[in-house]
Design a protein that fits this description.
- With 277 residues, this protein is α/β, with parallel strands linked by helices.
- 40% of the residues lie in helices and 13% in strands.
- Strands 1-2-3-4-5-6-7-8 form an eight-stranded parallel barrel, surrounded by seven helices.
- Helix 2 links the parallel strand 1 and strand 2 (46-49).
- The protein starts with 11 loop residues before the first helix and ends in a 15-residue tail after the last helix.
């Protein structure tokens, strides 16, 4: 039985209500039905079908290569495993940047084909006209400022954002503009905790979700593979807390399986079917 049986479906208003009450919002990524069901039944507020699937599932070194069709397939899988959590789909590179029409079409696909309930769009004040039009079509939007992975080449790598006055002003202005455009939430990535706090306090109707942005945000998000220790040992950013270390557990199981097969320890008679008497 679900641990959250009887609770209502979470939606974008859940974010606003929690912000107003000072209750922290919990978000994790998922890319498949089973992981989504684990997150959902244990009470996560929202599941982000992140374009981070490009890295952690498909093996690319950035989020740039993943396509709309692949992202929709992941979103469909997550939707099949989710009953209560809000499902947010990440709009991949070039799915919204070329034109407003492109953005509306692709955002609509996530809701119509992927069964998402909101989309996430990267970019600051320069993306406001596009985001506003998407929202006007009835599609809820989560913004994303700070380090925006789809623009990683522009930043020259994963660098802390907002350390210079011009950058701080841009981030503050962008957050307010995205709130005015109608975003229900915004991801703050790799931003100094003091600045994240200032941005969070300046917003009334848009919840901030931090990743590498300190405790002052309205909520937090992590890539589920990272927090479970399902990644390469050399990926250890300061902001990441590993709540489990599953890689060595999985490797041990694989090694034991190989050994058992080679030494005819698997399958045993108990794991085999015999001729009927």
């Amino acid at each position: 039985m679900s641990k959250i049986s009887g609770k209502k479906k979470k939606n974008i208003q859940t974010f606003i209500n929690k912000k107003s009450k000072g209750e922290k919002i919990t978000v994790l990524t998922a890319y498949d039905s089973f992981m989504a069901s684990l997150l959902d039944r244990n009470g996560i507020d929202a599941i982000l079908v992140g374009d981070s699937a490009s890295n952690v599932i498909h093996g690319y070194n950035s989020t740039i290569p993943i396509t709309m069709d692949i992202m929709i397939a992941h979103t469909q899988a997550v939707a099949r495993g989710t009953e209560k959590a809000l499902i947010i789909a990440d709009m991949p590179f070039l799915s919204f940047q070329p034109s407003v029409e492109t953005a509306i079409t692709n955002a609509g696909r996530f809701l119509k084909e992927g069964f998402a309930e909101a989309v996430k769009i990267e970019g600051g004040i320069e993306m406001v006209p596009t985001i506003k039009k998407v929202i006007e079509c009835g599609i809820p939007v989560m913004g994303h400022i700070g380090l925006t992975p789809q623009s990683i080449h522009k930043f020259g790598g994963p660098k802390i954002q907002g350390r210079k006055e011009k950058s701080r002003a841009y981030l503050k202005e962008s957050a307010l503009a995205l709130q005015e455009a109608g975003c229900f939430s915004i991801v703050l990535e790799l931003i100094e905790k003091e600045l994240s706090g200032e941005i969070t306090d300046s917003l009334e109707t848009m919840a901030t979700i931090g990743i590498g942005a300190g405790v002052n945000c309205d909520g937090q998000v992590l890539v589920v593979n990272d927090m479970l220790g399902l990644m390469d040992d050399d990926f250890k950013p300061k902001f990441l807390r590993q709540y489990a270390s599953l890689t060595p557990i999985i490797e041990k199981a694989i090694i034991e399986y190989i050994d058992d097969v080679k030494n005819q320890k698997f399958p045993t008679d108990k794991e085999s079917y015999s001729k009927e008497k």
